[in-house]
């Protein structure tokens, strides 16, 4: 077997240049010629004192960050117009290889904060202040929503990428075929399991997949049923995912199941 150090050097020569180039193209980061390279599980990345760029090796998933980004950081956070945020997000999506036809919506979320204090048992809050703006993108493939996919970006005060997270795995033709079939079934009146104390609000067909941080990449077609509580004071909406038979879909995996304790297994055998 090759020595670990030899493997490390080989992977560094092979992967690091690609990551450095991707960091420049997708996030506009200049990592220099000799950034630190590391890999673990299904993620590889490069970093220097300012920038970090990593991506999964089993899906189109990217994480990028500038340590100076944030309302209290040296680079600050963007508080200007929405156009710049949308443009930066669309540019990152294109550079990452995301087909433009899959981007069905881009919006900008404004985050506010306010200081407050309690005086004589009464809460007194100051006027909310804009902290930053975040761009977010939604996905659909062949007019089928892919609920788990997303892309988000936050800009520094001068309009550069300060933080980026993109999770946009490839959806294969077999999954799309079944999702289209589910949509046809939904249009014909799809049987959905009842939820006690709730009424069915909507049903649509689409695609689920594993989250951005995890050890697996499962991609699953499903019909999503959203239920509203009959009593509006009972809380949030309930959501179920079912297959063509109306049976519950096993949600995509993210972490490895815990290994059984050998000692407990031996004890039970006795």
Distance between the termini: 39 Å
Order of helices and strands: HEEEEHEEEEEEEHEEEH
Could you give a short account of the major beta sheet? 9 strands, antiparallel
Runs in which pLDDT lies below 50 for 5 or more consecutive residues are none
Output mean pLDDT: 90
Structural class: alpha+beta
The percentage of residues in β strands lies in 35-45%
Total number of domains? 2
Q: Count of DSSP helices?
A: 4
CATH class label of the largest domain: Alpha Beta
The level of helicity is 10-25%
Describe the structure.
The chain is α+β, with helices and mostly antiparallel strands and 270 residues long. The chain has 2 domains: 4-114 and 126-167, TATA-Binding Protein; 173-242, no CATH class. Helix content is 23%, strand content 36%. The protein has 4 helices and 14 strands. The protein has helices at residues 4-27, 82-95, 173-187, 262-269; strands at 36-40, 43-47, 51-56, 61-66, 103-113, 116-119, 122-125, 129-141, 144-145, 150-155, 161-167, 198-209, 219-229, 238-242. Strands 1, 2, 3, 4, 5, 8, 9, 10 and 11 form a 9-stranded antiparallel beta sheet that branches. A 3-stranded antiparallel beta sheet has the order 12-13-14. A two-stranded antiparallel ribbon has the order 6-7. α1 crosses α2. The longest helix has 24 residues, at 4-27. The chain is globular. The two termini are 39 Å apart. The model has no long low-confidence stretch (mean pLDDT 90).
């Amino acid at each position: 077997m090759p020595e670990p150090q030899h493997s490390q050097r080989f992977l560094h020569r092979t992967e690091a240049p690609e990551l450095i180039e991707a960091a420049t193209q997708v996030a506009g980061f200049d990592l220099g010629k000799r950034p630190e390279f590391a890999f673990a599980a299904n993620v590889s990345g490069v970093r220097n004192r300012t920038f970090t760029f990593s991506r999964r090796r089993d899906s189109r998933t990217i994480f990028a960050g500038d340590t100076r980004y944030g309302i209290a950081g040296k680079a600050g956070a963007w508080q200007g117009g929405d156009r710049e945020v949308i443009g930066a997000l669309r540019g990152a999506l294109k550079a990452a290889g995301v087909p433009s036809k899959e981007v069905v919506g881009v919006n900008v979320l404004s985050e506010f904060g306010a200081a407050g204090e309690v005086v004589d048992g009464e809460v007194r809050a100051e006027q909310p202040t804009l902290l930053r703006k975040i761009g977010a993108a939604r996905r659909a493939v062949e007019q089928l929503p892919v609920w788990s996919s997303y892309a988000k970006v936050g800009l520094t005060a001068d309009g550069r990428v300060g933080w980026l997270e993109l999770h946009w795995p490839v959806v294969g033709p077999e999954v799309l075929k079944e999702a289209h079939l589910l949509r046809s079934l939904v249009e014909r009146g799809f049987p959905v399991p009842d939820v006690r104390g709730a009424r069915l609000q909507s049903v649509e067909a689409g695609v689920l997949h594993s989250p951005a941080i995890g050890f697996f990449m499962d991609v699953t077609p499903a019909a999503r049923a959203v239920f509203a509580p009959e009593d509006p004071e009972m809380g949030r909406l309930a959501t179920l995912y079912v297959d063509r038979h109306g049976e519950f879909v096993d949600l995509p995996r993210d972490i490895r199941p815990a290994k059984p304790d050998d000692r407990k297994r031996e004890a039970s055998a006795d």
